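Q: Here's a chain of 218 amino acids. Please give me its 3D structure as tokens.
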Amino acid sequence: MLLGPALVALYRGPRGAAPAVVNPYREEAPELDLPGAARRRRRNLETYLELVGRPRWILLGEALGFRGGRFSGIAFTSERQLAGDGVRRLPWSAGRLFTATSRNPALWLEPSGSVVWGALGGSARGVLLWNAFPWHPHHGGRPLSNRRPEPALVAANLHVLEAVLAAAGPARVLAVGRTARQALARLGRDAPLLRHPAHGGAARFRAQLAEALLKRYN
């Protein structure tokens, strides 16, 4: 799947004032990132998109987290799942040019990403993982933290999501959390709401995702 204009806008970064937001496809912090990290993350994302192909589903989350997409470049995905050497590594990452980008010797692992990929059965084909705000918002002075992007910030940057939806055509969209659903509503799109897997929501997320997939094929 080639997103074209969406990737151009994504890599350029958020519009307007966006304090305490990292664009990991363009920015690098010497104390956190390996040399060439931004380029590696762009390559990770583009390789992932090729594996997705034409999506049948889009799972839309809130924003990149520091244990996940901030260093992997892919929503709901950790660098340990892409480039680790243990059981957490996703089967589709083996033998491909996915690389770690952080200076964390253990590699970051995001619990929500593990839940999402477990619920999907570990397959990348046909399911696009994305975020309403596709960069990493953090608390000021604490780059290894996560915060919810302000509604105005999400609204000012819906051009990226709009381009993704246009490229995805008839793909079915599922909103993982209320921020995602509100972003879709601003674009005139309705979507089933799934409980976000973080903060005790894993079991509910799995059940709702399974139900949504079942309804689609029945």
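Q: Can you summarize the key feature?
A: The chain has one domain: 5-217.
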